[in-house]
Write a structure and sequence with these properties.
Elements: H1 5-25, H2 40-53, H3 57-70, H4 75-87, H5 91-101
Helix pairs in contact: 1-5, 2-3, 2-4, 3-4, 4-5
Length: 102
């Protein structure tokens, strides 16, 4: 591994682990309330997640970027953008999106 790749990989791994821990601990052990009606943010996130789930990374990136045009500080959209970029091999851009999300 090149000397610069190790710190990058460590930072990316730490961000991924932190994001996974936050996602899994959100509401852990608590009774799940009735979900609120779907909003533009939740429908956008659902579309991005569906694209990722179905292996359409480029589409997920495009959808996340569209969401971020109207809500540039949307942490969920930034996280999904990072995941999409990670899946299509754009590691530096993925790391940037993850850092913005935090």
């Amino acid at each position: 591994m090149p000397p610069t790749a190790a710190p990058f990989a460590e930072r990316l791994w730490a961000l991924l682990v932190t994001a996974a821990m936050l996602a899994s601990s959100a509401g852990a052990g608590a009774q799940q309330p009735t979900p609120p009606p779907e909003t533009g943010a939740t429908s956008a996130a659902r579309a991005i997640r569906d694209a990722l789930h179905n292996g359409h990374g480029e589409l997920a990136v495009k959808l996340a970027q569209q969401r971020l045009q109207s809500a540039p500080d949307d942490a969920q959209a930034l996280t999904l953008l990072g995941l999409a970029r990670f899946r299509i091999g754009r590691l530096e851009q993925a790391l940037s999106a993850f850092e913005r999300a935090l």
